[in-house]
């Protein structure tokens, strides 16, 4: 997924064109501390298998008709609420760098057609930090190859989304 995301980004100019939904990724990230990485991966595989079976059987339209759209949108909003509020919090203490990076994103999206806006925003943010005297001495750059992990598929991890706490 990461390789195709990096290969698609220069052509599509989208940050993660092959990723799953953002609410799903946020739920996945929130469940890892509760049940562990291997269990979270197993629960994700179970959910994907169930979605595949429901989709191939043609039952997805029935499920979509049974669940009212306001309920679905409320669930998505509930997942995204904390993520959205955490994005705005840096504006309290770092209004200038946040504003510069937001403006650089919109500038790049509008005028720099060949360079993805997120890359421009990252470079502008790092340049701002370097010019403002940020200490990079403790930053360590490293590369790590992807690792295979053993997935466990316990039912408690699959049903444990109710215990996810949004701190």
What do you see in this structure?
- The chain has 167 residues and is mainly alpha-helical.
- The relative contact order is 0.15.
- The chain has nine helices and no strands.
Unreliable stretches (pLDDT < 50, length at least 5) are 14-19
The radius of gyration is 20 Å
Q: Name the average pLDDT.
A: 76
Quantity of strands, as a count: 0
One letter per element, helices H and strands E, the order comes to HHHHHHHHH
**Major beta sheet, specifics?**
none
Which range does the strand content fall in? under 5%
Number of domains: 1
Structural class: mainly alpha
Outline type: extended
What is the terminal-to-terminal distance? 29 Å
Helix content: 55-70%
Tally of individual helices = 9
Key words describing this protein structure:
167 residues; mainly alpha
Short overview:
By secondary structure, this protein is mainly α. It has one domain (2-135, 152-162). The chain contains 9 helices and no strands.
Write the topology of this structure.
Blueprint: H1 2-12, H2 22-35, H3 37-57, H4 60-66, H5 69-88, H6 90-93, H7 95-111, H8 117-131, H9 155-158
